[in-house]
Design a protein that fits this description.
Structural class: alpha+beta
Radius of gyration: 25 Å
Largest sheet: 8 strands, antiparallel
Low-confidence stretches: 1-15, 23-41, 178-187
Order of helices and strands: HHEEEEHHEEEE
Helix content: 25-40%
Strand content: 25-35%
Number of helices: 4
């Protein structure tokens, strides 16, 4: 409180003696001396870290994980197949629950819940095939069940991989684009 009075008194004195331009310069110089906090560093959580954080918050099986800017959108199905949570994982790894349901059709989630290869395993397999950063993982059960994984390579290309949920084998892959974006695919 005393410091504020001293700064205000000093600013008033400078304003009287030197005018508004010198007063602004004096306040800026004083503010620059008093700021000691370092700027916060942004930690950009990779897909694997977002998956771990989401499952710690809501145990189950990841159905989808998608990056939107610096936020991961993660859908998790409970281990019994009846529950579902929509989560957001921030760049720092903080989890926010957006929605939670407990009346899911367990039969409709049976293949996902019983798959030998989880989303985490699918990411690992896709990265072994195409090094880079995972931007999307989705369970696809239209027809033959598989994991769809998008990997942004160091070359800027986005690679699509289909991963077999029983064996973990990358069954199909290809380059989508050389779009140079930052992984913010909104499919």
């Amino acid at each position: 409180m005393k410091r504020t009075r001293y700064v205000s008194a000093a600013a008033s004195a400078v304003l009287i003696v030197g005018g508004p331009v010198n007063a602004a310069a004096a306040l800026s110089a004083d503010a620059a001396r008093t700021v000691t906090a370092a700027p916060a560093l942004r930690a950009d959580v990779p897909a694997q870290g977002a998956a771990r954080a989401a499952l710690k918050h809501y145990p189950g099986v990841i159905e989808s994980l998608d990056k939107d800017g610096t936020v991961w959108h993660v859908d998790v199905i409970s281990k019994d197949g009846k529950g579902h949570a929509e989560l957001e994982v921030s760049a720092s790894g903080a989890v926010t629950e957006q929605n939670r349901d407990t009346d899911e059709n367990a039969g409709g989630n049976k293949a996902l819940v019983s798959a030998k290869v989880t989303a985490e395993g699918a990411m690992k397999a896709a990265l072994a095939s195409h090094p880079g950063q995972v931007t999307t993982v989705e369970w696809d059960d239209d027809g033959t069940a598989s994991w769809h994984v998008e990997v942004k390579g160091k070359d800027g290309k986005t690679w699509d991989a289909q991963v077999d949920p029983a064996t973990g084998k990358v069954t199909q892959s290809g380059s989508d684009s050389d779009d140079g974006d930052d992984g913010d695919d909104n499919n």
